[in-house]
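are you around this afternoon, could really use another pair of eyes. what follows is a protein written twice so to speak, once as letters and once as structure tokens for the fold. i want to understand how the tokens follow from the sequence so walk me through it. anything you notice is useful, everything is just below.
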Amino acid sequence: MTHLVLVVTIGGMSLWLVLIRISGASTASSYHLLNPFFGVLLAYLILGQPLRMADFIGAGLIVTGLILTTQARARAPQC
């Protein structure tokens, strides 16, 4: 319980707020889509879970969508 409170909740929220401060709320929310990717990666690295082709396809779709949305925002005219 202490680990969940100190590391996950407080640490995660602190990093999230720093990311919002650095890159802005809209860009930071786009990076939130990478949570499943890092979950699969950490399961592979820490727990030894096997990686499947579906994991790579899903990661590719997430990264492609993230690139498309962040580039569209960068090209949009600023008012």
